[in-house]
Amino acid sequence: MECQKKYGGLFKMYFGFAPPFLVIVNAKHMEYVLGSTKLLEKSRDYRFLHNWLGKGLLTSGSVKWRKQRKILTPTFHFQILEQFVEIFDEYSGILIKKLETEVGKKSVDIYPYVTLCSLDVICATSMGTKVNAQDKSESEYVNSVKAMSRIIMDRSLSLIKMFDFLYCFTNDYREENHALKVLHGYTKAVIKSRKQELMKASGISDSPSEIEDDLGRKKRKTFIDLLLQYNKDGQPISEEEIREEVDTFMFEGHDTTAGAMTFALYSLSKNPDIQEKVVEELRSIFGDDKDRPVTLSDLQEMKYLEAVIKETLRLYPSVPFYSRDVHEDFEYEGTTVPKGTSLLLFVFGLHRDPDTFPDPERFDPERFSQENLRGRSPYAYVPFSAGPRNCIGQKYAMMEMKSLVSKVLRNYELLEVPGHKLLLSPETILKSLSGFHVQLRKRKF
């Protein structure tokens, strides 16, 4: 942020002996990079994800990415996402019960509660399985996800751990191997189980169909089911490719949404007038019934809450920066950007540009009213990236965030903890080293 203030929206930054990053903090330049069909290669720093995610949608090169994106896009169709609303509501209900023990206390860090709820949701929707993270927060699977998220960030910043030949002598290397054994073992076991269920349901060994429950009703399809059923020109997706995509979905759809939901709840505790507007909208939808399960129609009516979430992602984008590698020279406005350059897209700084967002530190959902959106570049606000490699799960994420945040606000009033300040840190995703402390009070809905 200091460099942005000093040098503007485009500057080079050096990290040790590595080639420099060209840092982009300008909507016009951002549009050129994100809108390009040539600048699709993720930077070398994404290699630290390969042991866990392989070459899934997030980390794959442009050739494989195009193939995988085409396969995966139908799995995020709105009709498929609709069946997940019940899951969002179910696990949000468990969260509400867990938070009851914190009502009336002077301070509670809500992040651990929200992230475990998000982990429950992602396991249920992507794998059709229950890890009961909210009840078993110290489970081996939950701890392995936490360990991998920490190790990936540590490797990108450590002069020793970033080199494979030195990293193999560290404790993190041994911890990563154990975590990967747990994570990959779990995913592979679920894939095998779901495949057997689908085969049994179809009665045809090479053509999996629908899974039915004991009453003959079709069970909701999960991410794994849809990938297992994919078959084009006699070419199904391999089990290893399915594992890569499911693990990618676990990684991208767990911490990112948990962080955004927690930042939203924290921001509402700091802005009681905005919180009350959201509650008024919820009362217009649910009346005085704080227990009625949320529906897709309800989520679609939460216009102001959606603006609140968008403003949260402006100030606190889950992924504060991402990067691309230049694999061939290209000309831009009379300047040659050479092959080998890494482009660092600084989203956090972009979203706090006072020319686009006046008084940028102020939390104001009205920035996303139809009137205020007119004339603003779509590349001035990119929490889900943009262009060809935008986030495939952004509709899923918005539905989950609306469901959880609305459930919390229907049950609890969020109050500010005097003196508590966020200490922002990009640990794979944007987090706060000081936690997210609020006070909870039962709401008379």
Automatic annotation (TrEMBL):
Localization of this protein: Endoplasmic reticulum membrane; Microsome membrane
Pfam family, one: p450
PANTHER family xref list: CYTOCHROME P450 4AE1-RELATED, CYTOCHROME P450 FAMILY 4
Species in which this protein is naturally found: Ignelater luminosus (Cucubano)
Family according to the record: Belongs to the cytochrome P450 family.
InterPro entries per the UniProt record, alphabetical: Cyt_P450, Cyt_P450_CS, Cyt_P450_E_grp-I, Cyt_P450_sf, Cytochrome_P450_Monoox
GO terms for cellular component: endoplasmic reticulum membrane
Signal peptide region: none
Recorded superkingdom: Eukaryota
Cofactor: heme
Gene Ontology molecular function, alphabetical: heme binding; iron ion binding; monooxygenase activity; oxidoreductase activity, acting on paired donors, with incorporation or reduction of molecular oxygen
Binding positions (heme): 391
Matching Gene3D superfamilies: Cytochrome P450
Protein name: Cytochrome P450
Protein keywords: Endoplasmic reticulum, Heme, Iron, Metal-binding, Microsome, Monooxygenase, Oxidoreductase
Membrane topology of this protein: Peripheral membrane protein
Main localization (coarse): endoplasmic reticulum
